[in-house]
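Researcher: Here's the sequence for the chain we discussed earlier.
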Amino acid sequence: MELLMTSSGKLEEAFEFLVYFQKQDIVKGTEVFKERFSAECPQNSPCSLEINSTEAVDSALYFCASSQSTVLRVSSY
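Model: Thanks. This is the structure I predict for it:
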């Protein structure tokens, strides 16, 4: 499971990776994610993302993708 965001809120712009889960465990997260965000993905429950310390650049569209092909399909629209 990957959590992604577009920094400007425009779908035609590239996605910025935030965090990657394997099952319920965070496997990889960006420095920005580690500094200001938290997320969890409990088994059999929806994943959640929380912004702990908001900044103006956090105004964006956030997406959760279950696979790389989902990311590619969304970003091609």
